[in-house]
Amino acid sequence: MSVFVKLIAATPEADRVVAAAAKICYSPSGAAEIFDGLDTAKTASFLKMLREAGHLSPFEHASFTFAAEGLSRVATHQLVRHRMASYSQQSQRYVGMTGNDCIVPPTVKSDPRALALFREQTESAQRTYDELVALGIPKEDARFILPHGAETRIVLTMNARELHHFFALRLCRRAQWEIRELAREMLRAVRAAAPVLFAAAGPSCVTEGSCHEAHSCGQPYKDIEDMLSQ
Amino acid sequence: MSVFVKLIAATPEADRVVAAAAKICYSPSGAAEIFDGLDTAKTASFLKMLREAGHLSPFEHASFTFAAEGLSRVATHQLVRHRMASYSQQSQRYVGMTGNDCIVPPTVKSDPRALALFREQTESAQRTYDELVALGIPKEDARFILPHGAETRIVLTMNARELHHFFALRLCRRAQWEIRELAREMLRAVRAAAPVLFAAAGPSCVTEGSCHEAHSCGQPYKDIEDMLSQ
Amino acid sequence: MSVFVKLIAATPEADRVVAAAAKICYSPSGAAEIFDGLDTAKTASFLKMLREAGHLSPFEHASFTFAAEGLSRVATHQLVRHRMASYSQQSQRYVGMTGNDCIVPPTVKSDPRALALFREQTESAQRTYDELVALGIPKEDARFILPHGAETRIVLTMNARELHHFFALRLCRRAQWEIRELAREMLRAVRAAAPVLFAAAGPSCVTEGSCHEAHSCGQPYKDIEDMLSQ
Amino acid sequence: MSVFVKLIAATPEADRVVAAAAKICYSPSGAAEIFDGLDTAKTASFLKMLREAGHLSPFEHASFTFAAEGLSRVATHQLVRHRMASYSQQSQRYVGMTGNDCIVPPTVKSDPRALALFREQTESAQRTYDELVALGIPKEDARFILPHGAETRIVLTMNARELHHFFALRLCRRAQWEIRELAREMLRAVRAAAPVLFAAAGPSCVTEGSCHEAHSCGQPYKDIEDMLSQ
């Protein structure tokens, strides 16, 4: 695995903030009073009820910021299609790409002939990039020759509601392997920071015990631990 | 003033998180390395440069959650038009409105005849609400008779980019007085938590020294302190 | 029923536009070529497949603009919480409210004592509003005394994906009656303009034959016609 | 120039729809009545006033759908960062890339040595892709070796407000050349369909006669015609 994810910021006491925000909808009390009255057990049972009822809008009040490295521009082009999120990505217009690695898909890695072809091609692309830059071609134009799999870095922020949506889509076995790795590392990181908000997460085989996909993969995960171990 | 705002959650070290996210765009280094290399002075000068250049997308990585009380449904109806934000509001479908106050506009407060009319009317509305509920009318229908100015409570989350946009629009003297009070209290709260991100904020008379409104009020604020003191 | 909805603009040939946009994802051909090759039957079967598989992102390319009248500010305060939409609403800051009606909930209408109390109160609110304006109170402040149920006008635009989400939530029997009326009129209007995109729509009792609500109403609609007739 | 843009759908009578939606905010009349009372001259002067005052929210009611071909994945990765829009893009997971062209930047095209290196490299990338697929590597993994400049197709929908924002950023001389070409073709297309909404558009040198960029290019466009001719 090559994706590396670090949680660089998170809403402090995220579980309690979400529970307090949700409770204000149904209570004559103020938020401060509600917040102080929420112990760990009450927070957990209330959030579980919200999650199971699909009342996820209060989950938006908890925000998580990740730094991700070791992923390809193939993966980030998919990632940034999630519009309910914020992104800052390493620019190929300004940052020279000399020496950058190309992500190698597992199917290529496990086939020696494919791997040799792949390596040869990425090295040749890097040489051509360097030669174009030496000829005076701007970096922003020379990069057209770099492979899609070129490694990039990105900082992204999503709230807990969007994260649940992201995990439901991107942890499914039918998702592309690289964004699935990214999603798995993100879920591991947020579960450490907000265990109650993410007590259950993932595709419906994990959260509901059944598959809603039109073309099911036929291999449901047993549970969240099973999903995270793969 | 009746609006009461409490910052109940904020991205920790918001100034540095935003600076690190922005720097990754222009640097071959990774986010963790960048984050550790950012001292207070470098963070401040870098964020100032971003703000003045209008490159505000990295500001989205800093998130702020407020609990607001003592504001009317007139104000929240305006507030929730800001779509780049998250809201949880006290429900009038489920929470009975007996005894709730009505926000009194300053122009009414300062005119004894207007105030007497206003009070009489809000009391009569409350009595009718109570009578309708006593007749078996559901709370969600009885509330149709409550005044627009009825007090409500709301929890809201905005990121620092949207907050800058919100402050630019809603701290202008031409904005409605109540949402202006709300914006002022919110700015006070975030300046304590993220002084560099919000070193400058507000309408263009404050941030640029000139007015872009088609119909200017003719009374530009001198500076951010002047604006916050009013 | 008091809500009046008029579809004032819609993407022409919306069914075919959505089908062509979706097909481009899976085809080596260009959009123009795909568009010309789509007859009515192909469009219908392809859109049905997308809808049932939950692949609704191409539905975003079809846009619908409605003018709605005869609904209360209670309803529009709920409505504008849908953030994937655009709104232009009659302003109470600038438009005087003299003579405007108040929406009367059906539970009130059907109870003569409740209706008498309600009428008396709305008339008294209107008188107070007029007196406050006569005293020199600005319209934007006098409106604090107007009832929540005061009639308003709004123009709104949603795309077909958001409309499906809106219909799923707001046509459920558990939704508030007024926004349910609005949703029903909107669905009637778009079904005339884009019959294939909206061949099925509404809560899951209609679209999937089963209820996902935590607290089901116990009275599932038989089908879309049954739902639209109520 | 290689980008090819076709406007495949647009809100009918977009100019009048936007003007009617805006007028409802300030008028006691209903939308239908307002719509019928708007002639061409009134529409034009009203929209000009809104545009110059920066009151662009009613512009959201006009929606435009484009099919774009002949652009690279470099450009679409930038494009899809605009989150207030809808996209359907040709998939490299499902559509085989054999025979697809690579976009050649003008700086490369005009330098024979650079062009020879570039061509050699794109041909070698295509050969490797074909060989990997022949070895049984899935298309979604073989594409990691394809150049960033590989041609793609996309259908996108933006409303007139987001389009104005897009044109302001992406028609600036400092924007990347390819997305600038795309923006120019899009502006040409919408000006034919909604001449009043887009009577003025582009960076501030065109719309306001002055530059707000921190690092100005020093070559302001004379006017919109000058900008569109380049």
From TrEMBL, chains A, B, C, D:
Pathway assignment: Pyrimidine metabolism; dTTP biosynthesis
The UniProt record lists the keyword Flavoprotein: yes
Enzyme Commission number, as recorded: 2.1.1.148
Cofactor(s) needed by this chain: FAD
Annotated FAD binding sites: S57, R81, H82, R83, Q89, N159, A160, R161, H165
Matches recorded under Pfam families: Thy1 (PF02511)
Reactions mediated catalytically: dUMP + (6R)-5,10-methylene-5,6,7,8-tetrahydrofolate + NADPH + H(+) = dTMP + (6S)-5,6,7,8-tetrahydrofolate + NADP(+)
This protein's UniProt keywords: FAD, Flavoprotein, Methyltransferase, NADP, Nucleotide biosynthesis, Transferase
Complexes and interactors: Homotetramer.
Protein name (record): Flavin-dependent thymidylate synthase
Gene for this chain: thyX
